[in-house]
Structure formats: structure tokens, C-alpha cells
Design goal:
Elements: E1 2-7, H1 11-22, E2 27-33, H2 36-45, E3 50-54, H3 62-72, E4 77-82, H4 87-95, E5 100-103, H5 108-119, E6 124-125, H6 127-143, H7 156-166, H8 171-178, H9 182-195, H10 201-210
Parallel strand pairs: 1-2, 1-3, 3-4, 4-5, 5-6
Helix pairs in contact: 2-3, 6-10, 7-9, 8-9
């Protein structure tokens, strides 16, 4: 069962989200928050697995809320939701701990898929958001035609895992594709994060593109 807190300052939107989620047997809406501070207050006294978090909240914006959750509620996953598909919003909230980012025009099936994916500690991005991220990474790559930094040598298996992460495969899909266990995938992911000095999957892809590791 996935306990969900919906955080958005528009009552009609929250009503819509709750009506979609209520019909799912594995999803439970345990609360609503209409501003940033109330999200943190709610987490103090309730068991929450995932916060469906609007980027623009009054009192304390979504990025600040996400940072607070990341620091003090490590077991709570954050799926950001916004009407803005701008690189600055996306990168900022991901760097502060969000596991996914979807747009408010996302359909029902994609919303449910995003929630279940993020709840499993995998990343999920709307197609348009993925394109924004990749475009930004490619621009960064073009802009920084500096000498290639010294990257630790990656094993063949680490390179395979890195390519699949770049293709947005989930941990389970990577395990199935390479015929290895989930634990082994997580071990390779941890090794990649350490070797490439990255904070998350987006960072891994950025560094991989900058250093031609996906060729």
C-alpha cells in the first residue's frame, strides 16, 4: 500500500487527483496540504510514502519543501508536479531530492505509472520533461568543450547499466534486461554515482554525455 499526501494550493486540482487515486487498490490518499509549511507539519505525525508535490506552493515553495523532506524524511519519496516545463524548475527540485517530475496535463495512466515508479525509488519524468532535460544536457555538453576530465574506468557491466539508466529503464527493467538481481543493479548504480561523483540519475546521464561514456 502506498500512502500519498497531495500538496497543491488549488482545491479543484486536489479533488481531481484524489478522485483518480481513490479507485486504485494499492494507493491511499492519507492527506491534503495547500501550502508548504503544512506539508512538513503533516509528515511529523503521519505515515507517508510519497508526496505528490506542486512546485509552486505558498508559504514555502515546492523546492524548499522537497529539500526539507530530503533532509529529515529520507523514506518519503517526492514526485513533483507542475504546469511549468522549464529546466531551472526541473533541475532545482531534482537536485533537492525529488525522484520524478511530471506535468499537470499528464493523463491518468501516466500519473499512476509515475506514482508507482517513484514509490519504488526509481525516477520518472514526463516525456516533455525528459526532452527538456536532455536538451539542457546537450547544450551543457556543447558549451563545455574543455579537456575531458579524468573519469575512473568503468567496468563493462557498469557501462551497460549506465546506458540503460540513460534510456530511462527502471531498476527492475535493468535487472530483467541484464539477467541480474535488483541488489546487483543497485550495487552498480551506487558504484556509478561514486565513480562519477553524481547525486542522481540525471547527474549520471549528464556526466556520461559530457564524457562520451554512452558511445
Amino acid at each position: 500500500m502506498i500512502n500519498i499526501l497531495i500538496a497543491d494550493d488549488h482545491t479543484m486540482f486536489v479533488d481531481g487527483m484524489e478522485s483518480i487515486l481513490t479507485g486504485e487498490s494499492d494507493l491511499v490518499v492519507v492527506g491534503r496540504s495547500y501550502d508548504g509549511p503544512s506539508v512538513i507539519e503533516f509528515l511529523k505525525d503521519h505515515e507517508v510514502d510519497l508526496v505528490l508535490l506542486d512546485v509552486n506552493l505558498p508559504g514555502m515553495n515546492g523546492i524548499e519543501v522537497c529539500k526539507e523532506i530530503s533532509l529529515n524524511y529520507a523514506n518519503v519519496k517526492v514526485l513533483a508536479i507542475s504546469m511549468f516545463n522549464e529546466e531551472s524548475f526541473v533541475s532545482e527540485i531534482l537536485n533537492n531530492g525529488a525522484k520524478g517530475y511530471i506535468l499537470k496535463n499528464t493523463g491518468r495512466e501516466e500519473l499512476l505509472k509515475a506514482i508507482r515508479t517513484v514509490a519504488k525509488n526509481d525516477s520518472y519524468f514526463s516525456k516533455d520533461v525528459t526532452e527538456t532535460i536532455m536538451k539542457s544536457l546537450m547544450n551543457q555538453r556543447k558549451a563545455s568543450s574543455k579537456a575531458v576530465s579524468s573519469i575512473p574506468k568503468l567496468s563493462r557491466r557498469e557501462k551497460e547499466v549506465l546506458r540503460l539508466i540513460a534510456q530511462e529503464f527502471t531498476t527492475q527493467e535493468i535487472a530483467d534486461n541484464l539477467y541480474i538481481s535488483l541488489k546487483t543493479v543497485e550495487s552498480h548504480r551506487s558504484s556509478l554515482l561514486s565513480k562519477l561523483n553524481a547525486r542522481n540519475s540525471v547527474g549520471l546521464v549528464r556526466i556520461a554525455l559530457e564524457n562520451n561514456l554512452l558511445d
